Amino acid sequence: MSDVLQQLAQVLEQRKLESADKSYVASLYAKGLDTILKKIGEEAAETIIAGKGGDKQQIIYETADLWFHCMILLADQGLGPDDVLSELQRRFGLSGLDEKSQRKD
Q1: Which domains does the chain have, with CATH numbers?
Q2: How many Å apart are CA 2 and CA 94, to the nearest integer?
Q3: For position 92, what pLDDT does the model report?
Q4: How far apart are CA 90 and CA 59, in angstroms?
Q5: What is the structure's pLDDT at 28?
Q6: pLDDT reported for residue 100
Q7: Interatomic CA distance for residues 70 and 73, integer angstroms
Q8: Alpha-carbon gap, residue 44 to 68, rounded angstroms
Q9: 92: Cβ–Cβ under 8 A, 6 or more apart, which residues?
Q10: Can you tell me the mean pLDDT for 64-81?
């Protein structure tokens, strides 16, 4: 499945070179970080609502939208899915409480 994330990451990188009037993703890049973050917030709220509604297909649909927009953020910041997957791998086998105690925030 990570192949899908890699393919999407490549497409998102290509969209950086496209015209904002011809590509939704390019238009988000052109509008800047605040617009990308706002879109993630909207998608997160829609995912929460879908979760409360309990419709599995709607949960999948909204989660896909949320992940998609998070991938745009990653690309905007010069990151990719491997960065997130590496962090998840690092956490694998740690209890949630241990992982939280290791954070620097």
Answers
A1: 11-82 (1.10.287.1080)
A2: 22
A3: 85
A4: 27
A5: 98
A6: 66
A7: 5
A8: 11
A9: none
A10: 98
How do residues 85-105 score in pLDDT, each as one tens digit?
A: 999 998 888 776 765 677 666
Tens of pLDDT, residue by residue over 20-37, are 999 999 999 999 999 999
77: tokens are 């910041």
Can you read off the two tokens belonging to residue 56? Answer: 């599995």
Tokens of 84: 């997130």
Backbone angles phi, psi at 92, to 5 degrees: -60, 130
DSSP the chain: -HHHHHHHHHHHHHHTTS-TTT-HHHHHHHH-HHHHHHHHHHHHHHHHHHHHHT-HHHHHHHHHHHHHHHHHHHHHTT--HHHHHHHHHHHTTS-HHHHHHH---
Question: Which residue matches tokens 């927009």?
Answer: 69
User: For the segment 49-64, what is each residue's pLDDT rounded down to a tens digit?
Assistant: 999 999 999 999 999 9
